[in-house]
Amino acid sequence: MALWLVLVLLPVLVLWLWPRGPLRLRLLLEDARFSLQAARLKRSVQGWLRQGALSLPGLFQLQLRSRPDSVFLRYRDESVTYRQLEAQSNRAARALLSCGRLPPGAPVALLLGNEPRFLAAWFSVYKLRLVAAFLNTNVRRGALTHCLQTCGARGLITSPELLDAVLEILPELQDMEITVWVMGPGQFPPGVINLHNLMEEASENPLPCETETPINLLDTAICIFTSGTTGLPKAARISHLKTLMCCAFYHLCGGCSDDVIYMSLPLYHKSGALLGVGGCIGIGASLVLKERFSASQFWSDCRRYEVTIFQYIGELCRYLTNQPQNEDECRHKVRLAAGSGLRPDVWKEFSRRFGKIKIFETYGMTEFNITFLNYTGNPGAVGRGTFLYKRFCPFELIRYDTQQGEPIRDGAGRCHRTSTGLCSLVYILPLFAVLRSLQTLVCVCAGETGLLISPVTPTSPFLGYVGSRELSEKKLLRDVFQLGDCYFNTGDLMMQDDLGYVYFRDRTGDTFRWKGENVATTEVSEIMSALDGFQEVNVYGVSIPGHEGRTGMAAVTLRPGHQLDLEQVFSHVKEFLPPYARPRFLRVMVGIT
């Protein structure tokens, strides 16, 4: 029997290795190494749970006990230790409690910028067993009201700098019985509570332990707004368990407690709050928190704060490569850049110009537990999709009809995997390829683009969106491969090559991405349609050379007898749309008579 296995398996292994044997072996070893790292990390997360860290703020408490006087935040010229942030969040929690207790699980919205107050407010809401809903600081008027209604907010915490946006809709908030707190010094109008004064009078002692413990790991911990693939922003439910899992991000990237992480991404997004702040807490490191990204100041900041890790989105790296050369760009300690959306051309230029910085490209969803990690450093790929990786994060690529905007199903109503899924299986498990001809057969369509989906299971649930079962159901595909199965629809089209690398290709639905934000075309169209002169408005994304993502093009048809008033259009768009959602181009359509 042993001899028979050798005679059969040895030729198969030789055929599989040829003609790129060394590369395939190296990748196989990298895949195995990462799988072991992921397994060790899973045990670490289980250790956090055993020690009582049941959510991201709970893990902060765990780190607080072991390193209370270590610097956690660097903000401007201020250094904030773990102990100081804990004291501030305790005062904030007691100040909120003095205004009346909200029921457990009640949403409290945060309209705060990148500053220590955001974290103090977030952790204080957690201490009271409330749900923090992170609001995009760019939204105004109708969009802001919509977000507060969608998440069912009972309270809103903002800052003096952003109070004007709240005052514009204060009557509506009062009708909705939403309490407004301002976390900062100043004199505020009636109907607005000065949380800063209440915090000054509050104790910094911890609250009773029972108010700090989440009821269940799968309970909603926070809400993060996302445009998804269509419509107005939706409040995605994020569980306590997911916030904790995100704290493992820098473990996977190779970070350690000695690192200093530079973070300028908005805290109202998953990348900033969960991967940036949470990942920093996970390794017990220090975080340099910037209000916004500045390409001209970046390298001098890195030297000033002795930064070792930089968290990016693709646009930021392009901004850096477009800057004039300066002496600081090669005199720094940055060793790792982690993030998403880095195009191959920018990747190569960034690596060539700024020294030996390891780039760790990733892909993930706010609403669901699907992740890719490019741990081998292949420019352009979002990660690996091998059989070993699917044990860690299962997914499928299915055939998709871009004209109809839906997956292709056969006569029995079932979907079909793209041929690359078979190819990657043969790559990792050559034992299934008994003959070289079989491997050639299944690889003939390598590179086919498909819709990325991932199974919804008890261990990987989809909590959905707040207040809308219909919107939640639209993100699910049922009876995909067999009757009764259920998959999460990412809305992203991916391609997998014959080596197992996965590449992002495009987005489906009515959104495009610009300046690191998802833009819902339906929302922009509705706002522009409010102008009397427009009979019809159609908004879509267009590519611009030298820029990431797509920007808005508004194709408009004028009403009979109306002239195009560009000043009116400009004023309307500026007033009602955040900067990233404003169309850069206007296309006037001429009707055919």
TrEMBL record:
Transmembrane spans: none
A Pfam family per the record: AMP-binding
Parts forming coiled coils: none
Membrane topology: Multi-pass membrane protein
Superkingdom of source: Eukaryota
GO cellular component, one term: endoplasmic reticulum membrane
Keywords attached to this entry: Cell membrane, Fatty acid metabolism, Ligase, Lipid metabolism, Lipid transport, Membrane, Nucleotide-binding, Transmembrane, Transmembrane helix, Transport
Catalytic activity field: a very long-chain fatty acid + ATP + CoA = a very long-chain fatty acyl-CoA + AMP + diphosphate; a long-chain fatty acid + ATP + CoA = a long-chain fatty acyl-CoA + AMP + diphosphate; tetracosanoate + ATP + CoA = tetracosanoyl-CoA + AMP + diphosphate
Gene Ontology BP, a term: lipid transport
Record's subcellular location: Cell membrane
Keyword Phosphoprotein: no
Enzyme Commission code(s) on record: 6.2.1.3
GO molecular function, one term: nucleotide binding
Top EC class, one word: ligase
Domain AMP-dependent synthetase/ligase intervals: 61-373
Domain AMP-binding enzyme C-terminal residue range list: 523-588
UniProt key word Ligase: yes
Family (UniProt): Belongs to the ATP-dependent AMP-binding enzyme family.
PANTHER family: LONG-CHAIN FATTY ACID TRANSPORT PROTEIN (PTHR43107), LONG-CHAIN FATTY ACID TRANSPORT PROTEIN 3 (PTHR43107:SF12)
UniProt name for this protein: long-chain-fatty-acid--CoA ligase
Naturally occurring in which organism (per UniProt): Engystomops pustulosus (Tungara frog)
